[in-house]
Design a protein that fits this description.
Layout lengths: L1 E5 L4 H13 L3 E5 L20 E4 L6 H11 L3 E4 L6 H6 L2 H22 L4 H6 L1 E7 L23 H20 L3 E6 L1 E3 L8 H11 L3 E4 L5 E6 H14 L5 E4 L4 E3 H15 L12 E4 L14 H7 L7 H14 L1 H8 L14
Parallel strand pairs: 1-2, 1-4, 2-3, 4-5, 5-6, 6-10, 7-9, 8-12
Antiparallel strand pairs: 9-11
Helix pairs in contact: 1-8, 2-4, 4-6, 7-9, 7-11, 9-11
Length: 352
Amino acid sequence: MKLLITGGCGFIGSAVVRHVIRDTGWSVANVDKLTYAGNLDSLAEARTSNRHRHFRVDICNRHALDAVLAEVRPDAVLHLAAESHVDRSIDGAAPFIQTNVVGTWTLLEAALAYWRTLDAARRQRFRFQHISTDEVFGSLGPTGKFTERTPYAPNSPYSASKAASDHLVRAWHHTHGLPVLTTNCSNNYGPYHFPEKLIPLIIIRALRGERLPVYGRGENVRDWLHVEDHADALTLVLRTGRPGETYNVGGDNERRNIDVVRAICRLLDELRPDSPHRPHERLIEFVIDRPGHDARYAIDASKIRKELGWHPRHSFEAGLRETVEWFMHNELWWERVMSGAYRGERLGLARE
């Protein structure tokens, strides 16, 4: 199978690329314009594989997309390219609207035009797979979980832009017949995670002995999914999912943010017994909450489990330990990232 993966140098996209090159015989055309969060180093061994090729292309550039599709002739498009950080969307929504909405529309138009050129057999096999987030569903109370039938209620500029992209993908299927698949995932974590997100930010700041900022009192709850489990789920959906269907992908690992931070601190106390920063919990600092901070997310992944047989391989405890150890042993990777456009600053503060 020949895949075109957008955003293949980002956190989740690079995990999918690595998984495809390591565990399948498929080839990958990686379309990524290398914004601040895109990193060729995250591709690891896939970067030098003869089954991987990177195209530095903006998904808003229709002419460039048409050229890549004509050259690669893919059997499927996996759309992961997105602006993804809520705090950044609060500071400025324009890049989120441009990439997540206009970019998705542009890619759908290009994919539809390409799909219509295929013979009947290849049109039947072709898939356009859209990767989205549970944040489109809004915020949960203390009980319940998001299902594939949960109404959309996005609360941030980021989640609103992703909700718009989900609706566009659905419309191109129902209006034009494009064979699409959509997945909505919970919070990912794991190796190569960009340092503006909670888990890598806390690990790196704790390793440096810096204050560990926690929004509010850290009571917000997230369901955590290891990125390699997510990559497994995405390729399974691609192979066996039913066109037009949506599948929720979750780790069944609900944790309060403060409990995640404290778990990281305890792991570093254990793994760095000689650290002058022990106990690392003394570095925790509660800071003003971000505007519109959703209280709780939780994914019901029973559909993908029952219909496709997927289940996560990583427990949160084992996955978090592995992630902490990875960041401890890959300081060169994150130091290079941190020396660029992002330096661990606080984003997403409300403006008067």
